[in-house]
Design brief:
Blueprint: E1 2-7, H1 11-23, E2 26-32, E3 41-42, E4 45-49, H2 54-61, E5 63-68, H3 73-86, E6 91-92, E7 95-96, E8 101-102, E9 107-108, E10 113-114, E11 119-120, E12 125-126, E13 131-132, E14 137-138, E15 143-144, E16 149-150, E17 155-156, E18 161-162, E19 167-168, E20 173-174, E21 179-180, E22 185-186, E23 191-192, E24 200-204, E25 207-212
Parallel strand pairs: 1-2, 1-5, 2-4, 5-6, 7-10, 8-11, 9-12, 10-13, 11-14, 12-15, 13-16, 14-17, 15-18, 16-19, 17-20, 18-21, 19-22, 20-23, 22-24
Antiparallel strand pairs: 3-4, 24-25
């Protein structure tokens, strides 16, 4: 099997590791993480260094490529861009847990992770660097655009379109023929019955826009008290809070 690394040694990285091990297509050598000490271990695997060490690591250990295991969509995009600068033509792998159900004529892009129990129905497209989390379901003819994510337990009807960098948090239900545009967050437990524009946070049953947001605004509950301007190795997308700050005024 080809040797790979997992970039990001957070809780999300542990779940990605499990998917890769269960799939059995690649040999995981260890983690790459800029915020954990080299030589320490995560789930029995060593932290091999940071992304700045990738060229050396690839030559030393005959590494084929890897996967970016970072829950926050914008941070994941930033790390992918950084790795592409350091190692042009880096092989970003895709991993699909064996318990996931993939329908007929489905397309799945590079760098995407599909978690245990997830369902991608017929004629759908999950583009690059997406996360379809545990027991989430994408209806027939659906589209998840690049760097978008659906958290655990999301149920999306047919002909759903999720825009770039947008996230649907835990337990959301989306009826058929809905479009959510780019950079939008749908709060946990919401019911979405109509289109939602870009660069907003929407929440409730039915979901209503509660505030605006900017590209890169944090949304994972593990980030709410973070003040560092450094990129964050975010927790799993399942950490989306149910109530997302105060309504926009």
């Amino acid at each position: 099997m080809k040797n790979i690394v997992i970039i990001g040694a957070s809780g999300h990285g542990s779940v990605v590791l499990d998917c890769i091990e269960k799939e059995g297509k690649y040999n995981v050598l260890g983690f790459v993480d800029s915020f954990k000490e080299k030589g320490t271990k995560q789930n029995g695997y060593e932290i091999l260094g940071t992304e700045n060490d990738l060229l050396y690591l690839m030559e030393m250990f005959n590494i084929y490529g890897g996967i970016v295991a970072i829950g926050d969509n914008w941070t994941r995009k930033s790390v992918v861009d950084r790795i592409s600068e350091i190692v042009p033509n880096f092989n970003f792998i895709t991993s699909i847990h064996p318990s996931a159900i993939i329908g007929k004529d489905v397309q799945i892009g590079m760098g995407t992770i599909i978690m245990p129990g997830a369902i991608v129905n017929a004629n759908s497209e999950v583009r690059g660097f997406c996360i379809l989390n545990t027991n989430a379901s994408l209806g027939h003819d659906g589209v998840m655009d690049d760097f978008s994510s659906m958290a655990s337990g999301v149920r999306a009807g047919g002909n759903f379109h999720l825009g770039k960098y947008s996230v649907v948090c835990m337990g959301v239900i989306i009826i058929e023929n809905v479009r959510i545009k780019e950079q939008t967050v749908i709060g946990a437990g919401s019911l979405v019955i109509k289109d939602v524009g870009g660069y907003v946070v929407a929440y409730g049953s039915p979901a209503l826009i509660v505030r605006k947001r900017k590209a890169g605004d944090k949304y994972l509950s593990g980030n709410r008290n973070k003040t560092s301007v450094l990129p964050l190795m975010a927790n799993t997308i399942t950490d989306c809070p149910a109530r997302l700050q105060e309504p926009y005024r």
